[in-house]
Amino acid sequence: MTAPHTPSLPDNASLFTRLSVARQCLEVLKNDPANPTCGQLLNICLDLGVYASLVQQLQSGEEGRRLLSERPSLQGKELDLAALERLPEGTLGHEFARYFRDNKISPFETTLELKNDIDFIGKRYRETHDLLHVLTGYATDVMGEMELQAYALGNLGIRTAAFILLFSSLEHLRAPQSGVGRSEYLRRIQAAYRRGHASPQFLGFPFEHHWETPVATLSARLCAPAQRMN
Q1: pLDDT of 27-54, one tens digit each?
Q2: How many CB atoms lie under 10 A from the CB of residue 29?
Q3: Residue 15, helix vs strand vs coil
Q4: What is the per-residue pLDDT for 89?
Q5: Would you call 108 helix, strand, or coil by DSSP?
Q6: Is residue 29 part of a domain?
Q7: Which of 101, 109, 126, 149 gets the highest tally of CB atoms within 10 A of its CB?
Q8: InterPro entries, per this entry (predicted)?
Q9: What's the whole-number mean pLDDT along residues 83-91?
């Protein structure tokens, strides 16, 4: 039985229905960001076609085919954060572990069963969210989260990111928060989108093999330079 107030998606749902359910999911996620049902359902509503296209792109290259074949995991149960934090300061592993400690959060976990490559790509996108914070330098406050969504939209065309941006931006423009005015908010969102669009596609990168690589090296390789904001 469906839990009270938990959105559900009927079979062969229309675009209007999928958008409506996606909005309900966002309302739940505002108060329960770790809700696994709504997190997965939001992606299903908006990004199946995008993920299918990304799978095709990855299948065209040797590294991408290897990723799809091996399906590596960055879930919390696969990560030894204590070991990663013992790596030299400045390395991806050390800074990734410190990111979780400093922000008092835990790595991503999901109950999603991987039935195909599209499911894996959806999971991979969510798993790399925190790594992108480390590589791009975007903060974990409201502004930084929206910048990261804009970056992902520019880089991958993720519709969930566009929906989150629209939903959150309308709220921010009605009542600015986090000490960021309307014009600055829009400038930073636009800059993050352009940066993501100018950067190499990150989803197929084998982060698991680069824990000992300096963050600065990976950022230079995977991220276009951040625009200086006056």
Answers
A1: 888 888 767 678 777 887 889 889 999 9
A2: 16
A3: helix
A4: 98
A5: coil
A6: no
A7: 149
A8: Coq4
A9: 98
CA 193/CA 222 separation, integer angstroms: 15
Is the residue at 90 inside a domain?
no
Q: Is residue 211 part of a domain?
A: yes
Residue linked to tokens 């505002």: 30
Flag whether 39 is in a domain.
no
Residue 81's nearest CA partner among 104, 60, 64 is 104
What is the crossing angle of helices 117-127 and 62-70, to 10°? 90
Both structure tokens of 222: 């995977």
Phi, psi (deg, nearest 5) at residue 214:
-60, 140
Tens of pLDDT, residues 198-215 = 999 999 999 999 999 999
| pLDDT tens-place string over residues 66-80 | 999 999 999 889 999
Which amino acid is present at 24? Q
- Structural domain range at position 71: 47-79+107-222
